[in-house]
Structures are given as C-alpha cells and as structure tokens.
Amino acid sequence: MSSTTTDAFEHRFHQAAQRHERAWVFISVVMIAVLFIAAVYLVVHDYGVVAKTAHIYADPNTPATLADFQGSGVKQTGPNSYNVYEMGRIWSWTPGTGTPLTLPAGAHVTFYVTSGDVLHGFEIQGTSINLTAIPGVVGHVSYTFDKPGTYYIICNEYCGAGHQAMIGKIVITGRAQA
Ligand SMILES: [Cu+2]
Asked: What does the alpha-carbon distance between residue 96 and residue 38 come to, in Å, rounded to a whole number?
C-alpha cells in the first residue's frame, strides 16, 4: 500500500471510531438522565417508606393491647376513607389470609403497621407500599387502590424459619356507590 492509501484508510477508520464514540457518549448521557429522573420520581412518590411517618409509640412488649389492633383490621373513618391495622408476629400477619381485608377501589386507605416481636417488612405486592414493622412503633402510610382485585401482603424482612409463610390478603372490590 502506498502511504496515501494508508492515510485515506486511517482517515475513514478515525471517522468511524468518532461516530461510535459520539453514539456511546450520547447513550451514556441518556442513561444517566433516565436514572436521575427515575430516582427523583421514586423519591417524590414515596417509594420504600420505612416507617418514617411513625407517630405512635407503644410499649414494645404489649403492642397487641392497642385497641385498634384488636378488631377485624378495617375501620371506616369517612364516606370513602378507611384505616387498616396490621400486626406482624413470627410468622403471620394479623389479619392474615383467613380474614382478607376488604376495601373499595378508589378509597383513601391508611395502613397502620406494627410488630409484636421482631422486625418484619410490610409489603403489598403490586403497590409502592413497603414499611418496616417495628416493635413499639406504629408506622403508617396512605394509599388508594385504583384497580379491583386481590393483593397480597408479604414479609420482606427475613424473620426466621417461617418467614415465607407471612402472608395477608386484601380484596379490592368495585368502587363504592357515591
Ligand atoms: Cu419475615
């Protein structure tokens, strides 16, 4: 090859390399932007609330004596608003799957969650609800279920041999008649 052919080849090679570099710089910038937007979105939408809104403190040895945790778990507080009380203990949620929590779609629901023994993770699958159930602390989070259906509560904080059996059930019915 003469030196001019080599130069022409190198010139084309460098042009192609530059195109690739520009493309990958562009892809990297887009990825950083997407991750940044996703992080802001999740913070704004309170994903992964870890009992930061706790405002009720109970004797860690006797949380079950709190009156609200004695009933069926659901208390209507307004025309379209409900409170739900869930207690975690090794290894079940109360109320559990045997007594599903029944709520209408579109209702404003506030979950109050505590633990009777060790740390548990209160997660409702298919939603952004994720609270740590802490003995002696009642955490709360509000949520509105838009779609009717069955939702399961799981424990996402390993709590011992029967951890995977900690399941609760929420049945969301059609919207309440106005
Ligand atoms: Cu667990």
From this structure: 33
Ligand 1 centroid from CA 71, angstroms:
23
CA of 14 to the centre of ligand 1 (A): 57
146 alpha carbon – ligand 1 mean position (Å): 27
Extended strands (E) in the chain:
56-57, 74-78, 81-89, 92-94, 101-104, 108-115, 120-124, 130-133, 137-143, 149-155, 167-173
pLDDT digits (tens, 9 = 90+) for 93-114: 988 888 899 999 999 999 989 8
pTM listed for this prediction: 0.68
CA of 155 to the centre of ligand 1 (A): 4
**DSSP codes of every residue in 18-57:** HHHHHHHHHHHHHHHHHHHHHHHHHHHTTTT--STT--EE
How far away, in angstroms, is 39 Cα from ligand 1 center? 27
